Amino acid sequence: MATSGLGILARAFSTSARCNKLVQTPVQVYGLSGSYASALYSAASKQKSLDSVEKDLKSVKELWEKDTKFRDFFADPTENANRKKTAFQSVVNKLSYSKVTQNLFDTMADNGRLSRLTDVINLYLELMSAHRGEVICKVTTAKALDANTSKELNGILEGFLQKGQKLHLQTEVDPSLVGGMTVTIGDKFIDMSLKSKIKHYTGILKSASI
């Protein structure tokens, strides 16, 4: 059911065999949520509405994060799918979302997948960043970076980019790291946290005491 629903989403605005082909995404995204995001990207690309769909999804994400009743209702697997679809259509009509966005919500509601909505949104936003030539870099530190450190880090990370690419830096705080940082850029992950070093040397000490 879910697979056929994705096909409907991808073909929503296609009338010929040629148009039925999925538009190639700028990067690969995986899993069921990745399939929805890829199909959405393809449909939006054909309708020249990539940016408007991105705007719609950012609006939904903000609502999802701020309104707990809204989020809990649509994330509840025991809630009736038709009720969810009707409720989401009401939100869509009120906020005047694009037809492509509406088709995504309808397809996910029909297949009982609205609980995955934020995953699909985040993957679509990732596709749009890649579409603009941005390279997403996630930096997690034990405490928030000050302006000077953030600027210095940004300059260092830009040195890893290829010509024409732009850095899109995302920072998070995780006190459990104790100190240092972890960096994810593209498909590379670097762990420079004090937590990791403590774990490493604790393992060495335990081995030495045996």
TrEMBL record:
Molecular-function annotations in GO: proton-transporting ATP synthase activity, rotational mechanism
Keyword Membrane annotated: yes
Organism annotation: Magallana gigas
Any one GO cellular component localisation term in the record: membrane
Compartmental location: Membrane
Main localization, broad class: membrane
The family this protein is said to belong to: Belongs to the ATPase delta chain family.
Keyword 4Fe-4S: no
Protein name: Oligomycin sensitivity conferral protein
A Pfam family recorded for this sequence: OSCP
InterPro entries referenced in this protein's UniProt entry, alphabetically: ATP_synth_OSCP/delta_N_sf, ATPase_OSCP/dsu
Keywords per UniProt: ATP synthesis, Hydrogen ion transport, Ion transport, Membrane, Transport
